[in-house]
Amino acid sequence: MDLKGWSNPGRNIEDKLHEQFYNMVNTLQDKHFTKHRNYLQIKSDLVLSLGLKSDGQLSTIKNTIEDLGLVNRGILERRNTNFSKDKLLTDLGRVLFSLIEIENELLKQNEKIPLQISKSIEDMYKSFYTEALINYYFTNGVRDGINSRFHPVRAILKQLRKYGTLDFFEYYLLCTHIYEDDNEQQEKQFQQAIEDYRAGNITLRKANIIEQVKGHQYLPQWIEKANFIKIKRGTRIYDWQISENVVNKEIVDHILHSDFLDNLYKTILEEKKI
C-alpha cells in the first residue's frame, strides 16, 4: 500500500524561526537596505542579512510565515516595493512581533528572565499559536493534483476524538485517505484502512511512504505548539504517537463543531473583501 503525506511546511516552530521572522521584518523597515527596490531585487541581500545559506531557505521562511498568517500574501513577491509593517504584517503577525520584542527587551535587562515572567511569555506564545492554528488551512490542496481547500487541524482532531491515538503509520493512513473537509467517503476509507492495520491485516513500512516522507515532523509539531495534541516520541519511528491534549478541550470542541468551517471560511472571505 502506498502512503502519501500532506504537503509539509518544512520548518518547525522554534526560537530560531521567531528570530528570523523578527529580523526579516526589521530589515525590511530599513530604507537604507531596501533602497526602493522590489522583493526580487533585495532577495539575495536579505539572504545575507539573515545569515541564510540560500534563496531556498529564505523561501521556506517566507512560505512558513505566510502559512501561519503572520504576513499578508502578496507583499513578499517579485514586484512589490512597499514592506511597511502596516502592509506586511497581519494582526497575528503584529502580536507575535510584539511578543518577540518584549522578550528581547527583557533579555537585555536580565541575564536570565525571572521564572514567573518567562512562564507568562510562554503562555502568551501558546495562546498565539492556538489562534494561528485555528485559522490555518491549505488554500490549494494538500499535495499536487488536489486543489480543494482543507483544514488539517480539524481533520486530525476529528480522528483523534474517534480513535484516541494515532501512531506513525496511522497518521500517514489519515493523510493518504483524507484530503477534503468532512468528506464522508474519504473518512470511511480511512476507517477501513486503520481497522485493517490495527487488526494486523496489513503490514506497513517506512518504504510505503512515497510522498511527503517528512510530513509527520512539521505540521503535528505546529499543532502540538498550539496545545491541541500531545506527541509521544521515541528513538524509533514506531514509538511516535499523537493524542488529543485535553488542556484545550473547549477549543477543540469549537474546531470540531459542525458550523466551524463555514464560519471560518466566511470570515476569511469577508476579510479579503475589506
Any key phrases for this structure?
mainly alpha; Arc Repressor Mutant, subunit A; two-stranded parallel ribbon; 13 helices
Level-1 CATH class name of the largest domain: Mainly Alpha
Helix content: 55-70%
Give the CATH architecture of the largest domain.
Orthogonal Bundle
Residue fraction in strands: 5-15%
Any chance you could write out the topology, listing elements then pairs?
Elements (H helix, E strand, L loop, with lengths): L2 E2 L10 H15 L1 H4 L4 H11 L5 H13 L17 H4 L2 H19 L5 H20 L17 H12 L1 E3 H10 L6 H15 L10 E3 L3 H11 L3 E4 L8 E4 L4 H8 L3 H14 L1
Parallel strand pairs: 1-3
Antiparallel strand pairs: 2-5, 4-5
Helix pairs in contact: 1-6, 6-7, 9-10
Characterise this structure.
The chain has 274 residues and is mainly alpha-helical. It has two domains: 3-9 and 138-271, Arc Repressor Mutant, subunit A, CATH 1.10.10; 15-134. 57% of the residues lie in helices and 6% in strands. It contains 13 helices and five strands. The strands form two sheets. It has a three-stranded antiparallel sheet. A two-stranded parallel ribbon has the order 1-3. Helix 1 crosses helix 6 (91-109), helix 6 runs antiparallel to helix 7 and helix 9 packs antiparallel against helix 10 (184-198). The longest helix is centred in the middle third of the chain and has 20 residues, at 115-134. The protein is globular and about 65 Å long. It starts with a strand and ends with a helix. The mean pLDDT is 92.
